[in-house]
Amino acid sequence: MSLETGFERVSMPLEAPFTIARGTQTEAENVVVRVADDAGTTGVGGAAPSAHYGETAATVEAVLPALLDAVERVGDPHALHAIEAELRAVVNGNPAARAAVSIAVHDLAAKRLGVPLYRLWGLDPSDAPMTSFTIGLDETERVREKAADAVAAGYSVLKVKLGTDRDRELIDAVRDAAPDARLRVDANEAWTPKEAVEKSAWLAGRDVEFVEQPVPAENPEGLRYVYERSALPIAADESCVTAADVPAIADRCDIANLKLMKTGGLLEARRVIAAARAHGLAVMCGCMIESNASIAAAAQLAPLLDYADLDGSLLLAEDPYEGVDLADGEIRLADRDRAGTGARPASE
Ligand SMILES: [Mg+2]
């Protein structure tokens, strides 16, 4: 079989500037990959490169021709293991670029079989957890408004970005606006270990569920210090990039937070999930700010997760793709029941 491939950059303004402890983003630059078979069935996948992991839209575009050559060389969209291995042989880094190709090939393979990906994997859509909706850093009054808006829109699980000298004020504002919401917080590496332990005790008193990445990934002993003393469960995000990281975080956190843009593909994502389970960790899947060309694929993994944070496309002013219905936070995998990842151009 001959496969035809291509890609294009999509620049998507955000609904509002999005700030975390590391900085502010006003636009998401994704690269959408297409892989088509000779009958014209087309799979799509998105790359949402993150500068934190050394990628930009330009680095994705630079490496995609070689990655797509590898896909054409393998030639069989059902040879998912061979394709991901080939992609890793071409470049060991560039995980967002590889993820886009992996997603597109998975989408094509499942479309050719006429099933949604979760069906191909034998998963029960009713096992999917709710996704959280993320509240970025902002002026305290804006954070209060954003939390109230999220609750009004039906979201019952909120993830609040922290890592400022106003962390307590921000949580009090969110709690005030969303007294019944399930709250999680993400410090994006901004705290010292001692500060993280103190803040976790205070956050436990505000009925927060868990704390994500309290300290820098470069400080694994600090993560262990926090884990051993924290009043709340600890999730590892920046500390957990691929399956190879799981053994090292197993005695330093409670929850492994994977992302397709870190694992570099759907098979590696499922390996992270399996490795985390084998080490007794709970599993979460997060995302970057990304189009449904990739979020829809992460949503297909939802029945394997304890926690989902798949709101990346909800932060866009407009998504050129539609995907799995996440209205009010429920991941409705079976609702549209489309073959593949469920991603479609919004114009279709
Ligand atoms: Mg995070």
From TrEMBL:
It comes from the Archaea. Its cofactor is Mg(2+). GO terms for molecular function: metal ion binding; racemase and epimerase activity, acting on amino acids and derivatives. The keyword Metal-binding applies. One of its GO terms (biological process) is amino acid catabolic process. Keywords: Isomerase, Magnesium, Metal-binding. Residues 140-233 form the Mandelate racemase/muconate lactonizing enzyme C-terminal domain. CDD domains: L-Ala-DL-Glu_epimerase. SMART domains: MR_MLE. Belongs to the mandelate racemase/muconate lactonizing enzyme family. This is L-alanine-DL-glutamate epimerase. It comes from Halorubrum sodomense.
